[in-house]
Amino acid sequence: MDIGFMVLIFLIGFIGSFISGMVGIGGSIIKYPMLLYIPPLLGFAAFTTHEVSGISAIQVFFATISGVFAYRKGGYLNKSLIIYMGISILIGSFIGGYGSKLLSEGQINLVYAILATIAALMMFVPKKGLDDIPLNQVTFNPTLAAVSAFIVGLASGIVGAAGAFILVPIMLVVLKIPTRMTIATSLAITFISSIGSTVGKIMTGQVLFLPSIIMVVASIIASPLGASVGKKVNPKVLQVILAVLIVATSVKIWLDLL
C-alpha cells in the first residue's frame, strides 16, 4: 500500500468521522460508499464489499468510543435505554457480522441499500415537540426498543455499520426520544453493536488491519471534534444534515444495484 493510498484512506476516515460525531452516527453511512467508490475512481485498488464492511466495523468501534466520551456529561445518555437496546443489538450484530461471510457482495450491498432507504424515509416523518420534553421525563416502550435494536443489529452487523444511521430515526420517530438525547445515546448503543459486528468480522477473516488502523486514527482525532460542534448546532440542522446524507447514499447504492 503506497503513501498516497494511505493518505486517501485517512482523509475518508477523518471526514466521515467528523460528520458522524456531529450527527450521532458511527459513520458507516458515509464511509461505506466512500471506501467502496473513491479509491478506484482515483486510480487506486478497489476494496471488496467484504473488506469495506470489515474496515467499517473496526472503525465504528473506535469512532463511537470517542463520541460517547465527548457526550458523557450533560445528562444526554439515557442509561436504561442503553441497557435495553444495547444487549439486543449486541446479540443481533454478532449474528449478522459472523453470518455475513455466507453472503455475496451483491447481497451485502442490498442489505445496506434497504437499511439506508428505510432510514431515509423515517427521517422525514414529523417529530413535533420532542425536543421540548425535559431529559429526566423521557419514557419509552422497553419491548419495542429491544426488538427494534435486535433487528437493526442483525442487518447492520452484515454490513459492518453498527446501525446508528437507522437507529437514530427509530429512536426519534418510533420511541419518541428528544434529538440531543438520541444523538448521545445512539452513540453508546452503536458502540455496543460494533463489538458484536467487529468480533464476527475478525473471526471470519473479513478485516484488513492496516487500512483499519489508519481509519481508527482518523476517527479518534475527528469524532470528538464533530461531537463538540454538534453540541452547538440547532437540532433541526443536525436532522437535515443526517437526512441528506442518508438519502444521497441510498440513491447511489440503489442505482448501482439496479
Topology overview:
Blueprint: H1 3-23, H2 28-41, H3 49-71, H4 79-99, H5 105-122, H6 142-159, H7 164-174, H8 179-203, H9 209-232, H10 235-257
Helix pairs in contact: 1-2, 1-3, 1-9, 2-3, 3-8, 3-9, 4-6, 4-8, 5-6, 5-7, 5-10, 6-7, 6-8, 7-8
Give me some keywords for this one.
0% strand; globular; mainly alpha
Provide the structure class.
mainly alpha
Topology as a string of helices (H) and strands (E): HHHHHHHHHH
Oligomer state equals single chain
Q: Per DSSP, what share of the residues sits in E-state strands of 2 or more residues?
A: under 5%
Cα shape:
globular
Q: Which range best describes the helical content: under 10%, 10-25%, 25-40%, 40-55%, 55-70% or over 70%?
A: over 70%
Low-confidence stretches: none
> How many helical stretches?
10
Task: Explain this structure.
With 258 residues, the protein is an all-alpha fold. Helices cover 77% and strands 0% of the residues. The chain has helices spanning 3-23, 28-41, 49-71, 79-99, 105-122, 142-159, 164-174, 179-203, 209-232, 235-257. Helix 1 (3-23) runs antiparallel to helix 2 and helix 2 (28-41) packs across helix 3 (49-71). The longest helix has 25 residues, at 179-203. It is globular. The two termini are 32 Å apart.
In a few lines, what is going on in this structure?
By secondary structure, the protein is mainly alpha-helical.
